[in-house]
TrEMBL record:
Keywords: Membrane, Transmembrane, Transmembrane helix. PANTHER family: ABC TRANSPORTER PERMEASE. The lineage of its organism: Bacteria, Bacillati, Bacillota, Bacilli, Bacillales. GO terms for cellular component: plasma membrane. It comes from Paenibacillus sabinae T27. The chain crosses the membrane at residues 17-37, 57-78, 111-133, 153-174, 181-202, 257-277. The keyword Membrane applies. It holds the Pfam family ABC2_membrane_2. It comes from the Bacteria. This is ABC transporter permease. One of its GO terms (molecular function) is ABC-type transporter activity.
Length: 281
């Protein structure tokens, strides 16, 4: 298994989009840290109360992690949208599949190889943003809340990885990238609309629509639960983001929903292994 993880890293480094992603991520983190420092400096000059400073740090945290999930999602999309069909087109997949191992093990090995590096990238991104807010804006961090938030933040791109790899078995590389990006964008847009609709009370039809969207691709729901846990769960700091317009958390996904996402990923992995085993190479 270590061999496939190493091979996946070599494959990623050969792609120019990987280098571009790292450069853009570094630029984002530098600009974000600079912006937070400037905003906190302006706040310090105005002598705001500790409660206002905490609210400002919460707003910065929400915005920073919102764009961080964008970066994590596009890292997944660009690195995995051609995992099967892309390698099939250049002949690499036929050489790898010729080894005397079951195809389903090869599919799982590829998933695990990508999952390791996606986890490393997303962890570095999450910790950088949270630590920047903690140091410069005074956001309070508790170890258990940060670990819960980090675990759920990592689960979001892994869910997207699972559906992107399944799509790569059936669709060409570009088509799979467009399909996965639109599906992710649809889930994200639904979450933003739900945050706005919560102010006047969502129509029952809209509530069913939001539920079906979350079941179809639960990435945004998992992200909102991650944010909720990081902000202190049911404490007032967690409830403070319930009044932030489209970034509000009108409903918090339950533990039962998180268990659903585990089953969701397991089913998609099973379907991917089965489809890959039957695919004509």
């Amino acid at each position: 298994m270590t061999m496939y993880i190493s091979a996946t890293f070599k494959e990623l480094t050969r792609k120019r989009v990987f280098l571009v992603t790292l450069i853009l991520t570094f630029i984002f983190l530098v600009l974000f840290a600079f912006g937070v420092r400037e905003l906190t400096g302006m706040t310090g000059q105005n002598q705001v109360s500790p409660a206002e400073r905490l609210m400002n740090s919460i707003v910065l945290m929400v915005l920073g992690l919102f764009f961080s999930q964008f970066l994590a999602a596009f890292f997944v999309l660009f690195s995995t949208m051609g995992t099967v069909t892309g390698e099939q087109e250049n002949g690499l997949l036929l050489a790898v599949a010729a080894r005397p191992i079951p195809r389903w093990k090869l599919y799982l090995a590829k998933w695990l190889g990508h999952a390791v590096w996606i986890t490393v990238y997303s962890t570095a991104l999450f910790v950088s943003v949270v630590w920047t807010i903690h140091i410069q804006a005074g956001f309070p961090i508790l170890a258990d809340e940060m670990l819960r938030g980090l675990g759920l933040f990592l689960w979001m791109p892994l869910l997207l990885l699972t559906i992107t790899m399944l799509g790569s078995v059936y669709l060409p590389m570009l088509g799979n990238g467009i399909f996965s990006a639109l599906l992710y964008g649809f889930a994200l847009f639904s979450g933003l609309v739900e945050g706005v609709a919560s102010y006047g009370g969502a129509h029952p039809a809209l509530e069913k629509f939001f539920l079906l969207t979350g079941l179809l691709l639960p990435t945004d729901s998992v992200y909102r639960r991650s944010l909720f846990e990081l902000m202190g769960g049911a404490d007032w700091a967690g409830l403070a983001i319930a009044d932030m317009g489209p970034f509000s958390i009108s409903s918090v996904p339950s533990n039962a929903f998180l268990l659903y996402t585990v089953g969701y990923a397991a089913v998609l992995l099973f379907l991917g292994c089965r489809a890959f085993g039957r695919k004509d190479l």
